[in-house]
Amino acid sequence: MKKVVVLGHGTVGSGVVELVERNKEYLMDKYQQEFAITGILVRNLEKHLGKGKDHLLTDSFENLLEQKPDIAVEVMGGIQPARTYVKTLLDLGVSVVTANKDLIAEHGLELLQAAQAGGAVLHFEASVGGGIPVIKPFRESLKGNRIRSIIGIMNGTTNFILSKMYDEDLSYGESLRLAQDAGFAEADPTSDVKGYDAARKLAILSSIAFDKAISWQHMGCEGVQDVQPFDVANARAVHCKIKLLAIALRSGHNIHCSVRPALVDKHSFLGHIDGENNAIEIEGDAVGKVMFTGAGAGKLPTASAVYGDLLDVLSEKANGILPLNSDVDYQLIPYYNAPTQWLVRLRVNHIQDTVDLILSSFSDHSLQLHHLNSKDNLFFLVDTEDERQLLQKLAPLQGSSSVEELRHFLIYR
Ligand code: HSE
Q: Which of 81, 110, 287, 358 has a C-alpha 20 to 30 A away from that of 342?
């Protein structure tokens, strides 16, 4: 019998307890093993009483330790006190399974080192993509590849918001309220809507993929809070949808990582990923492109990933795989470093002057100019070698008094 303690009893914590109970017989039949939940740590006892688990609840971490657990599941979220608790457990040799992307993105290396030193393991499949298996494929099935790119929709809340704006013509504010009511958003939705949540998930995946510790704070990160209804209309006019994409691209010794609202062809694979769903496309030099999709958040989907990790602890699989001792020397570059098409959107006060400037700046490119919705909303499509070339061409427009606002969106097809 393995004694399991659960730190946190919110949506995911209660899902883990439910799944452990649901799989009791299966585990015994298949593995002749049993997970016995011996304690659940909560912040506020009162809030959780009367839900059938009163005998397991405690608000004291020391009480949990006294039970001498074999495995701890950390689903409290946030950095503190989760970091202190997880570090203490690992130092004591207790293996930990966590769904906490903030903790892994910020302190994953330190915690994996603690796990190694303590003779424990630390698994974190649920920290990226909720129920979608994506870390384990990196660890196991894709090991024979050099990874070229990771591109995906990694935040359910913002995908839900953008889907509502596209499908139902709702405003950003109305869509956010619906996402909060549905329970996808973090307690403070700032990290969802500003792209930080997706950036943390991308940092975890790209650190694994490129064997280099990549900090989410060093990535370009734009959220969805400034996406306007006319951006959605512009995207629709060119048969695309807006999605918050998390992008990691390697070319030689350069890596580009960013989170940004981008256009995707509505008929493409990513164009069909709507609502709170997530999807991650990985390209390896041997396997080509593989896709992972499904529920990126929610009680049982996330618990499903946690349960898989619990089984890995049981079968004594090796530690999670952040780059512990990597000396690989990549340079993180701020611009998207591959040929692509862009949608450039401008709010202008003088149409003809702006059009003249666009035509002169992009004289060696073929352009598709559009003028939609209102007299001052202009946009065009253009292909460039990379984002740096685009920004150079846009510089005269940025400085022009006839342009009030300018924004560019990558188009991923
Ligand atoms: N707030 C996150 C999301 C939850 O919306 O994707 C899962 O990490």
A: 287
Structure tokens that stand for 31 in this block: 């593995």
184 lines ligand 1 (CB under 6 A): yes
In this structure, whether the domain defined by 142-293+326-333 belongs to CATH 3.30.360.10 is answered with: yes
Catalytic site includes residue 201: yes
Indicate the pTM of the whole model.
0.95
107 alpha carbon – ligand 1 mean position (Å) = 19
Q: So where are the chain's domains?
A: 2-123, 142-293+326-333, 340-412
One-letter amino acid for residue 335 of the chain: Y
Kindly calculate the radius of gyration of the chain based on its CA atoms and give it in whole angstroms: 23
Ligand 1 centroid–CA 395 distance in Å is: 36
Q: Label each residue of 80-115 as H, E or C.
A: CCHHHHHHHHHHCCCEEEECCHHHHHHHHHHHHHHH
Q: What is the DSSP letter of 197?
A: H
| Minimum-distance ligand 1 atom for the alpha carbon of 155 | 6
Ligand 1 proximity of 298 Cβ (cutoff 6 Å): no
Pocket test for ligand 1, best of 158, 186, 274 (most atoms within 8 A of CB): 186
Which CATH homologous superfamily contains domain 340-412? ACT domain (3.30.70.260)
8 Å CB contact between 165 and 261 = no
